[in-house]
Amino acid sequence: MPASPGRPRTISPDAVSLVALRLFDDRGFDAVSMDDVAAEAGVSRRSLFRLFPSKQALVWGGLDEFVARFRAALAADDRGDALAALRSAYVTASVFPDGQLEVTRRRLRVIHVTPALDLRADPRLTALTDEIHRFLVARDPDADELAAAVRAHAFAAVVSSALTWWAEHDEGRPEDVLARAFAVGTLV
Fold it and tell me: For the chain, first and last CA: distance in Å?
């Protein structure tokens, strides 16, 4: 079979992910197959699996960027108040480019309604919570170990709840909603 002329078509992982998230959000994660995603995105099944080895990978894209922004913001914050530094780093990490808002909103909605995608089960988020725990202990070596563990998990819960609320209510920007959520309580 002769090779086709020209360069091979470039497939945008972001575009494919958005197609998948729209399908998952509209029909339900379990009701959509990888074949459905490939057909709707106009790519071959093989190409889809090269980009995303599983349906879960279609949903979890973007998490690494969020974690990287969080870590960079936290590393750059040298104030003595560990809780203020964590709040600021999370708000900074929640600033998504305008072109990523729909993807982020749909991703969070799909995760929220799909038990198999529970945020607490993702190893990157578990590692991040452990990192926050170590950060709190390091910033205040005299602090109570239990208090640091509770605060680390409380931060994770506040962030998850606030961003899920933002995704479901389509109100404002995620970083503003998260800042409002942090103002609600005194634990985090």
Answer: 63
d(CA 66, CA 128) in angstroms, rounded, equals 11
Distance between CA atoms of residues 132 and 83, nearest Å = 10
Q: Which residue has the tokens 């998948």?
A: 20
The Cα 130–Cα 111 span in angstroms is 21
Q: Which amino acid is at 61?
A: G
Rounded to the nearest 5°, which phi and psi values hold at 62?
A: 95, -20
C-alpha separations of 142 from 26, 30, 79, 109, 134 in Å:
50, 47, 18, 40, 13
Q: Give residue-wise pLDDT tens across range 125-155.
A: 788 888 899 888 888 777 788 989 999 999 9
Measuring CA to CA, which residue among 94, 95, 155, 92 is closest to residue 120? 155
